[in-house]
Amino acid sequence: xxxxxxxxxxxxxxxxxxxxxxxxxxxxxxxxxxxxxxxxxxxxxxxxxxxxxxxxxxxxxxxxxxxxxxxxxxxxxxxxxxxxxxxxxxxxxxxxxxxxxxxxxxxxxxxxxxxxxxxxxxxxxxxxxxxxxxxxxxxxxxxxxxxxxxxxxxxxxxxxxxxxxxxxxxxxxxxxxxxxxxxxxxxxxxxxxxxxxxxxxxxxxxxxxxxxxxxxxxxxxxxxxxxxxxxxxxxxxxxxxxxxxxxxx
Length: 249
Description:
The protein is α/β, with parallel strands linked by helices. It has helices at 31-40, 57-64, 78-90, 107-110, 137-143, 150-160, 176-185, 236-247, and strands at 10-14, 20-24, 47-51, 70-75, 97-101, 116-121, 161-171, 188-197, 206-213, 220-221, 225-226, 228-230, 233-234.
């Protein structure tokens, strides 16, 4: 990684000894993004896109792990795009990871339709009219459907994906049915579901769902993923997912 100029609220989060990501108080990442990146796991030859990429944690993890032949990262917030653009340059990924400062609803006008093997989205978890909205614009966009909703995501993905291409989303359990409805409306058939819980004693707090464009009816429910196997002791699978990231923490 080459030298990079940081703003006052920014720092480098190392995803491995060689790969660093610019994060800030406004644009950082959480466990859900790490889980979604692993759940989607593109093949080396796949053409991929991450909607609402934020600081770019998902595409940067794919680059670290050798996933995807070509990756497009779409983000509407200019500051987040600037962070990721600097990360791409510092890690010399300009030939693989392409950043677009754009509204995901406009991606069919910007990106080639019918080309993508995998699209991911870590969407706002709350509907536009649900709960108390943050006064901070970046938090409002991240948490509430102020700029896009689940139907917008499914509609854009249905145009960009090739037949049989996958849309992978992480969402709160209370919005799972709504997510599947949006997928099916745009011919993306839900094919795989995995629930994430803090421990075997706790109720799931996250759903990882995969849909295939033009897929046949029938969904596989995978075994639950537990973050902890004991109090403050990460599960073996969570250790695997964190992997190289934890080694440099």
